[in-house]
Task: structure prediction
Amino acid sequence: MVALTYKVMPDSDVEDVTAEEIVTQIQALKDDVYDVQLCETKPLAFGLKFIQVHVVMNDGSGLSDVFEENMRAIRGTGEIEVLSMGLL
Result:
């Protein structure tokens, strides 16, 4: 199993989507492969927020890439960065 922590920035060009709506959609990605354990909205600066996502998945080739693509497909999602990755 692999534990990953992502930093997800809302796209500033999409005005009608909030960070909380993105969190709800990321949590909906939880299934048999991806265990989305925690999504937190955190302040960044000047009223900007980012979403910290903690997910556990099997250690399989390309699984993290598929999860990142699924997050990118969510409307209003901007830059995605891996903050940490570790084996469980």
Q: What stands out?
A: The longest strand covers residues 77-87.
